[in-house]
Amino acid sequence: MFGFRSDGKRIKNIDPFMKIVPHIMFERTDAMVSQFQDYDCEGIDKYIKEKRETEGIRFSYLDILVAAIVRLLSQRPKLNRFISNGRIYKRNTIQVSFAIKKKLVDSAEETTVKLEFDGTESIYEVKEKVDAIVKANKGIHKKNKTDKIADAIVGRMPNFLIKILVWIFKGMDKHGVLPKAIIEASPMHTSVFLVHLKSIKMPPVLHHIYNFGTTGAFISIGQEKYEPVVLNRETKEIVVRKMLKAGVVIDERISDGLYNSLSLRIFKSIIEDPSVLDKKNDNVIKDLD
Question: What is the CA radius of gyration of the chain?
Answer without folding.
Answer: 20
